[in-house]
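In the current project phase, the collection of sequences with tokenised folds has grown. A representative record is quoted in full directly below:
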Amino acid sequence: MLRYLATRLLRALLTIAMVVTFAFVVLRLSGDPALLIMSVDAPPEAVEAFRTAWGLDESLWVQYVKYFNAILHGDLGRSMRDGRDAIQLVAERIPATLALTLPALAIKIGIGVPAGIYAALHRNSLTDRVVMTLAVMGFTVPSFVLGLLLVLVFAVQLGWLPSGGDGTWRHAVLPVVTLGVGGAAVLARFTRSAMLEVLGQPYIRTASAKGVPWHAVVRGHALPNAAIPTVTIVGFMVGSLIAGAVVVESVFSWPGVGRLLVVAVANRDLAVVQCILLLVAITMVSSNFVVDLLYGALDPRLRQSRAGGAG
């Protein structure tokens, strides 16, 4: 087991290092921040002084080594716009993003999982068709389109809710619903498919043939086994809590990390962009690591194989 955990931890660290490297290279090759941040009529001497002050005049390799060494010492750099620490700018926006994504995650799980289970247990019924039709619609409609439709109906036509901004719980309703609908649709489809696959297994038919009540078969055999692929999707959603809000925060002018990322990319604020991408990578990798641990709790066969591998 310890060997398995060490392997997973090593893979997680390598993944984070690859994300950091990829972000660093792409951002440096996408253009010179000095030319964007400085005014168009700035003298060449001022532009060169800016590049020297921020180390942009050094080779890409030297910049990368210094950047990676700074990360290892807990220094994620400073914003080129106002000189503040990048981690401070990002940390200020995290509560606003979580105020959207955590309620949206609750909607995804609270609606998607029960809907998928119910549809699977009533396969080919009218309810099943209705649930899957709504799931397909929720899955295929882009979040920015859904957000604009909700604004048109509930903000412009009915005037019930604000169209954007923050300040009260009413400002969060539309973006939370926008984030929650698509995820609920995805979970409903995956949960239904997982349940149908499990319900068709021989051990389900055997348990039913032995006279075990159907509700006990579903609760004791079908749900635990169908939970494994569902947990995978939920883990991905948890890992993408920050990255998944970029579009919605932009549509509703919500002051979270996603909107900060859009502004930082447009301004070539390298340290802020790299800090956000590092945060997203750590969140995603940590979520996947927890999901791997949950697999063992849900499937005893995995625990046995890991124990055998560790021995």
Q: What stands out?
A: The CA atoms of residues 165 and 253 lie 5 Å apart. DSSP finds 14 helices and no strands in the chain. The chain has two domains: 2-72, 89-310. Residues 86-121 form the longest helix (36 residues).
